[in-house]
Amino acid sequence: MSREAFLQRVREAAQRGRAWRVERHEVPEGTGYVGAGDDLPARMAAEVTAVGGTSYLVADLNEARDTLATLLQKFQPRRALLWEHPLLDRLEVAQLLASRNIDAVDHADLVQLDRPAQREQSLAADMGITSADWGIAETGTLVMRARPGQERLASLLPPVHVAIVERSQLAADLLDVFELLQAEGLDNLPSNITLITGPSKTGDIELQLTTGVHGPGEWHVIVAREKGKRMKDEGKRMKDEG
Q: Which of 156, 197, 221, 232 is 20 to 30 Å from the Cα of 130, by its Cα?
C-alpha cells in the first residue's frame, strides 16, 4: 500500500469516527438518580445481554447447575479453569465436571507445578468457570477481586467464560460497590480489581470491532434469583445425568 493510500484510509476512518462524538445536552431540572430498578436479577441479566454477553435468569441454584450442565454439553470443554468459591462449592461444580470427564484445574492444582507447567495447563483450558465478588445490575458488570484461588486467568484466558452469581451478590450500581469496598477497609484491597462488561472486544483505526481477540469471545452469566432448595444428592444427579 502506498503512503498516500494509507493516509487516505486514515482520513476516511477519522471522518467516520466523528459520527461517534459525544454531544452535550442539558439535563432537565428535577432529574434524579435513575438506578437499576427493583428487580436487580432481571436488570443484571438484561444488561449482560445488552453488552454482548449471554445471560440466563434462573429461579435458584438448582436451575443454575442445570444451566451450567447445558453449557458444558454445548461447548464440550476438555479442561476448565475453576475458581475456588463457596457458591461453586454449593453448586458442586467440581463433581459435575468430573462426572463428564472434564479436567478441572484450580489453584490447588496449579501451585504444585512449576511456572512452565502452570502456563501449559492454563493455556490448555477451553473454559473458565467463576463466580464474582459482585454483579453491577445497572451495567451488567462483574466485579472480580484477584486473590489466591480466584485468579484473573479463569475469566481472561479461556475462549469461553461462564460466571454464576446469585441475588445476594448483586449491587445496584458502581457507587454501591465502592461503598462495599470501603466498608471492608481500604487496607484490605487486593492487588487487582477487574470490571468485566461483555466479552473481550478490540477495535482498530477503522473502527472495526472484533470480539474475542484479547480474551473470551463467549461470555455467559448465570443469574440466580434465590439460593433455592438444598442441592440434590450428588449420587442421584449422577444417575439422572448418566
A: 232
- All structural domains of the chain, each given as residue ranges with its CATH number in brackets, are 36-241 (3.40.50.10420)
29 and 13 in contact (C-beta within 8 Å)?
no
Interval 187-239: pLDDT, tens:
888 888 999 998 877 766 666 666 656 678 899 999 999 865 545 444 444 44
Residue 138 and residue 171: Cα distance in Å, rounded? 8
- What distance in Å separates the CA atoms of residue 92 and residue 65, rounded to the nearest whole number? 8
